[in-house]
Design a protein that fits this description.
By secondary structure, this protein is mainly alpha-helical. It is built from ten helices and no strands. It is elongated and about 65 Å long.
């Protein structure tokens, strides 16, 4: 019985040592991945997507090419991982906006509502211009449900007297205005990041004007 207990204690101790050794390795691996993704983002902005190569990223990140292929088997997986990082970051913005209570949304002007909804994303895109460029090749429909949920919450809170079907229409039009602007104006401007940033701010102005117009008609 004592021998069995000793064996279990030894196994437990060995497992603890393995986990303790694995943690720094995992931390170093995570740090290396982040360095590679940072380097990829820098090269996208500097050279555009065609200028991003596995060897070029490895040189910029000061990472052995073998380590690069250990984490990312090809260029597509590298770009996809960078896009996933952006989606995770914007998902956090979605969650923060979703926590704003309805009384706050009701108390804001139409312009302030759009500013509250759009500014965090615009700021993020301005700080991460590679995300703007990645939009041209990566799917970005993943957050539609969350985006629509927050926007629906806002419209429902501000226009409770309007029929549900009408409120749903307003939500869809606001989303269409935003996504249409991205497709028609923003994506063609991706080669000029500064111009793309200007378009983002004009999109916010257009959304605010639409929301103000709808709310004015409802109050008549």
């Amino acid at each position: 019985m004592t021998k069995q207990r000793d064996d279990r204690d030894t196994e437990s101790h060995d497992a603890e040592r393995v986990n303790a050794a694995r943690s720094p390795l995992q931390a170093r691996g995570r740090a290396r991945i982040e360095a590679v993704l940072d380097a990829t983002a820098e090269l996208i902005v500097e050279k555009g997507l065609p200028g991003v190569t596995m060897h070029g990223v490895a040189r910029r990140a000061q990472t052995p090419i073998g380590s690069m292929y250990h984490f990312f088997p090809d260029r597509e997986s590298l770009l996809s991982a960078l896009w996933d990082r952006h989606m995770a970051a914007t998902g956090e913005i979605d969650d923060e906006l979703g926590q704003i209570d309805i009384d706050t949304w009701r108390g804001l002007s139409s312009e302030a509502v759009i500013d509250r909804l759009m500014t965090p994303y615009i700021t993020y895109l301005e700080q991460n211009p590679d995300c703007l460029i990645l939009m041209t090749v990566m799917p970005h429909d993943d957050n539609k449900k969350r985006d629509a949920g927050t926007l629906r919450k806002v419209v429902d809170a501000r226009m409770p007297q309007v029929k549900a079907a009408e409120r749903a229409l307003y939500v869809e039009i606001l989303r269409a205005l935003a996504s249409g602007s991205l497709a028609i104006k923003l994506r063609p401007a991706m080669g000029d990041v500064q111009l793309a940033k200007r378009y983002l701010r004009e999109v916010k102005r257009a959304l605010a004007a639409y929301l103000a117009s709808v709310e004015a008609s409802v109050l008549k």
